[in-house]
Amino acid sequence: MRSVDPDTDVLLEMARGGDAPAREQLLSRHRARLLRMVAVRLDRRLAARVDPSDVVQEALAEAARRMPEYLRDGPLPFYPWLRRLAWERLVKLHRRHRARKRSVLREEDWPLPDESAAELAQRLLASGTSPSRRIVRQELRERVRAALAELAARDREVLVLRYLEQLSTAETAAVLDISEGAVKVRHLRALERLRGLLGVDHEGKEP
Description:
By secondary structure, the chain is mostly helical. It has 2 domains: about 5-100, Rna Polymerase Sigma Factor, Chain: A, CATH 1.10.1740; about 110-200, Arc Repressor Mutant, subunit A. It has helices at about 5-15, 20-30, 30-40, 45, 50-75, 80-100, 115-130, 135-150, 155-165, 170-175, 180-200. It is globular, with a radius of gyration of 19 Å. The N and C termini lie far apart (about 50 Å).
């Protein structure tokens, strides 16, 4: 399966040809993105005990072991595949440290830490999706955070993946195992729902 990143596609072809440095580059070039994902998802109560770098390193080590299988079968684009390995590590950590009998496995069921929710609100405002420029921004951030909590989990997760993890539409579709069209629909629906919860119209004006 082709990656959504042309540079990654080139490295994958080189790796399939037996180029060991290309395999190393495939893993190292996505380290920062994986760190970002773990930082966004990690419960701050665990942050003092869990180093995101360790989570990523373990995921990359597993990816290195499973690279021949990936190069042969390619079940996902490369970064979503790497991310899935890191996600599985993160789920196990939450289960272990929080003594949960059953840990959530789907992204959309994962509780978003307060700090990440605040950052998502800020990014939505900065991205131009702010419903109103006349409200004090701090007040608006709090209102957006509250509105985010009212969204359907599947719609909120698209915003998390797109704005916090900064995944492309194609990557988001691969992570959630839905079509790119469905991602776009969820994205627009989430923004429309936010506008409705905040009491603004399509032009970003309050009634």
